[in-house]
Amino acid sequence: MALTQERNRLLEYPVERLAEVIKDVGFKCTSCAKCCTRVFNGHVFLLDRDVSSLKAVDPSALEPAPDPEFCDKNGIFYVSGYSLRTQEDSAGSCWFLEKGRCRIYNRRFAICRIYPYMLHREPDKQGIIDWRQFSGLDQHGEYDTEIPYDVILDLARETKEYENAFLTQEIRFLEFMQDYFSVQGLRHVQKVYDNQLKRYNQGDEITIMVFCDGSLKSHRIRKKKFKLS
Ligand code: SF4
Question: What is the number of the ligand 1 atom nearest to the C-alpha of 97?
């Protein structure tokens, strides 16, 4: 219900208001490639439609998104989707990042296209909930650039459309899990979740079910060891 309310608020949010913020900030990408690394962004979450296009490019670049939402009494995790695989370098570079450039730039995914613009509500440092519109503000790129208004409006529309698709995917996942747990006689067990997470962090292989295109897919995964530079 909370997510549905959030989606309703998002749908009411005027695109023109986001466009004004984008115009005022005037962000310009300087190709530093920071945003394509795990150090800067924990993970790149993929919408179902991105998963389909990624499978056509390189299916090995898919991995279960981190921070699974649930764990049942048997120690099986459940997560709402896939994310982009990272390389095992010290920055955790995206699988498609090569010499600071995206290998699939013209086919990059929804979140890559709109980044760093976003439109979701979360608490600020004072705990006040407000719409967040930029990721990594003042930590990358250049600002105060003139951007044509038609480009700004397209960015604002695409950002709102992405956030709507993301919330819709999350809602579908929760609805699915409610039915799935009910039919299977399962429930989330936090103690098992914590124990399994500990095992995973210690290097044990675990089972995780990933929600994609309306069903769950099972994977066995082990935590990666990243090379330190
Ligand atoms: S797919 Fe390309 S744009 Fe997206 S995170 Fe990876 S390297 Fe960056």
Answer: 7
